[in-house]
Design brief:
62 residues, alpha+beta, two-stranded parallel sheet, 2 helices
């Protein structure tokens, strides 16, 4: 799972495509972009950490 934030001031989410293309041997891949509408748009999704943790935990139990 790769998570991003649409207004991250350190990592531009638009670079995720390159990162995904470098992952040649993955069996599955999920990309989740958090946004300002969810109050999770900043680096490390500051503002709505619970949402992010819940998403990661739900992904892990799939």
């Amino acid at each position: 799972m790769i998570v991003g934030a649409n207004k991250d001031h350190f990592i531009d989410y638009k670079h995720v495509g390159r990162e995904i293309n470098m992952l040649k041997n993955v069996r599955s891949l999920t990309f989740r972009l958090f946004t300002d509408k969810e109050d999770a748009q900043n680096h490390c999704n500051v503002g709505n950490g619970k949402l992010v943790i819940d998403e990661i935990l739900n992904w892990c139990v799939k």
